[in-house]
Structures are given as C-alpha cells and as structure tokens.
Amino acid sequence: MSTRLKQLLLVLPLLFAATSSVAQSPPRGQATQSRGVWPKARALAWADTVGWLVGSNFAPSTAINQLEMWQAATFDARTIDRELGWAESLGFTTMRVFLHHMLWQQDSIGFLNRIDRFLAIADRHHIRPMFLLFDAVWDPLPHLGRHRAPIPHLHNSGWVQSPGAAIMADTARFRELRGYVRGVVGHFAHDRRIVAWDMFNEPDNVNRPAYLAYEPIDKPAHAFVLLRKAFAWAREVNPSQPLTAAPWKGDWVDPARMLPITAYMLDSSDVITFHSYDDSAQVDRLVTALERYGRPIICSEYMARPRGSTFQNILPIFSRRHVGAINWGLVSGKTQTIYPWDSWNREYTAEPAVWFHDVFRRDGTPFDSAEVAFIRTLTRRR
Q: Per residue in 168-186, pLDDT tens?
C-alpha cells in the first residue's frame, strides 16, 4: 500500500460527519401524478430538439469535490463562468454536474439558489447541464464544512459519495433522501436550461482498493434499492427533462449476461447513457448493443488517454453515430484527475507526461493544442 493511501485512510475516521435532518420540499414544480418511462417517440423527439450533445463532467478547478463546489462559502461563480467559457470555446453544449444530498439537508433554499446561479452562468455560455443526484464513487464518508487540501499527485483524493456509507448501510434511512430528490427535481422540473437528470453514478461501485474497507457489506444490493427509489421519487414530480442512469460494468452486449442492476438502468431510462473508457472497437460494440433499445444514446463518461480512450479515437464514433459525448474532466484542478486511477497504488511525484483526464490547465491553455483543434473541428460540423 502506498504511503499516500495509508495517509488518507488514517484520516478518514476523523472526516465522518452526517446529518439526518430533512428539509421540506418547496412547492414549486410538484406534480400530482407520477409519470412512467417516456415512450420512445418522445425520447427521439427530445433528441431532435437538443441536437448532438458534447461536453464534460464538470467541477470547477477550485473545488476538490461536489460539496466544495456548491457550499455557500466556496461556491466560486467567477471560476465557473471562466471555465464554462473555455467549454463554450470548444463547442461544448452540456456539462454533467454532480449534486449532493447534504447540501439540501443543510439549506435547501440556499442550495436551490446556487443551482439557479449556476444555470444562469451556463445559459450565458449556451450550455445545458445534466445534473446527477447520487454518486457511489470514492470517499464514502462525506461531510459538510471545510475540506482538506488534495493529497499531492492522487486522482480524486477528496471526491465524496452521496449518500455515503452511513445511509447506504441502512435502507430504512433512504426515506431521508426523498425530499432531496423531489425538492431539487421538482423545483427545476420545467426548466429548459437543464437537459437531463442522472439518477445515480455507478451505484454498485465498491471502490476497490481505495475505500473498500469503509463500504457497507451489502452496498451493491442496497444501492439497487436506492436507485429504484430515486427513479420513483423523480417521476413523482413529473419532470419535463429525461431521467437516466448509466451502466458502467459487466456485459450488456449479451442480454443473458447482463447484471440485474444494469438491465434495470437501461429499462428505466428515458434516454440511454453509459460509461466506457475503452478503445474504439469496444465503444463501437457497446453502441451497437445499446441501439436495440431504440432510444437516444449518450456516453456520460469517457476519455482516459493512456487507455486508448482519446478524443481522436472516440469522438468521431460518437459524431458518426449521433451519440452524445461527455468526457471526464474539463480543467485540471483540485480533483487531480490528470493522474490515473493507479495513483492509488503507485507513487507519482510529478505531472504525468500524458494526462489521464481533463482538457485545460488552470490558465486556460490546453494540455494538447492539436486535441483541442480536433474537438472544435467535430463540434463545428453539427
């Protein structure tokens, strides 16, 4: 185990903090009758209106995680505006942006106001975000308040889960999350500035090896329960935007080998999303498999350069097949995702020669000028 990993695991118990208070949902946007999964015709009509979606998973470079991004004390509108301007310069039209239930529980009105401010900034840059409600990846012990500095050279050393281990271990506590889902989705249920809602990022990810020791034993099963509830709660407020959740592991090419949670995500999504950091041949294979659902397709995570998942290799496939493309990372910053996943078990002491994720440095210069020119060539063809 690396020195850096030992350092992080020693401080984890000190970071645990959670609140069980549940703010009440604001009345705006509430519906009296739940809707079902969109008919395919409606999903395809939605795709016609939004066009080819291209963008990044986004957190400002000044935030180590989604809590630091959204908390009142550290919400950095100036950096968000500047960095979304760089996204606009690439021809990007969407961002996948992570929310967090603790922000709702702490101050629901303030949280909604900051989301509205973010949407106003994004709209000025002609960007319509996909908001994500829950996340099962990285630190399972989220806490409000001040966040520590990143551990040097470590990929996502401070990203946090929502809801995290304390709630995930006890399905009876899932009821605490209903107000958050209904409140946020309901408040923005008819806001044209939002392109879609992502229910749960990689719900059955147990974060091996980084945080496995801190994960609930029954996490995959419990996460499946919460995923079903999240879809149901969101549909209770009848949003005009599509709902989705992305398969990320296992084999969904062969239906007979598909994991039950994967089948549920695909069957429950208004529009299909998926994650793939694979090479071009595998991405082509996955897209072909997903086309059998007859719905619009978006890859909501891709681009890990050393694995062959590059803009030059993958984005032309998505352009040709009209698959939405949301890569991981826009600006290198406190998340440190220029470092690869294996930085959790291999020591890095300097910036890698080939970045794992991200497009720009903090001053706006690109990691690879030719790469940026290539992206602009494709997005201008829309």
A: 999 999 999 999 999 999 9
